[in-house]
Amino acid sequence: MILENFLRAFAHVFHMAIQLYILVIVVRTVMSWMGHIPPNTFTIILRRLTDPVFRFVHRVLPFTIIGGIDISPIIIVIALYFFDNFLTGLMLSYAASTPATPTTPIY
Q1: Which of 34, 45, 70, 102 is the most interior residue, by most CB within 10 Å?
Q2: What is the pLDDT of residues 2-28, one digit of tens each?
Q3: CA 95 to CA 4: how far, in whole Å?
């Protein structure tokens, strides 16, 4: 019972964290289309949150820049949706399959 509730809660928190990170990537991508934005605290935080993942994708998949258009945010969002659905579904199905705590008679 406790493990089931913990796994369900953890799966929901994991799902919310992935969705929040996808939102951060979308905001960062839209801001990159706006041209030069002077550095401020918001843009610095966005860059620190997203640049390591963008650099990793560019290093592993060098073809993500096509004709000057960077498609790495699309690849990252698709990968995040896949991992979100896979891992959240796995945790929820495992939580549903955990056996109930056996009742032992009290003597």
Answers
A1: 70
A2: 888 899 999 999 999 999 999 999 999
A3: 4
Q: Which long-range contacts (CB under 8 A, 24 or more apart) does 12-20 make?
A: 12/88, 14/84, 14/87, 14/88, 14/91, 15/84, 15/88, 18/80, 18/83, 18/84, 19/84
pTM: 0.84
The residue assigned the tokens 């610095």 is 44
Q: Which amino acid is at 48?
A: R
Q: How many residues make up the chain in this entry?
A: 107
**For residue 30, how many C-alpha atoms fall within 13 Å in the half-sphere facing its CB?**
6
- DSSP string across 6-59: HHHHHHHHHHHHHHHHHHHHHHHHHHHHT------HHHHHHHHHHHHHHHHHHH
Q: CA 92 from chain center: how many Å?
A: 17
Q: What distances in angstroms separate CA 9 from CA 15, 87, 89, one per listed residue?
A: 10, 13, 13
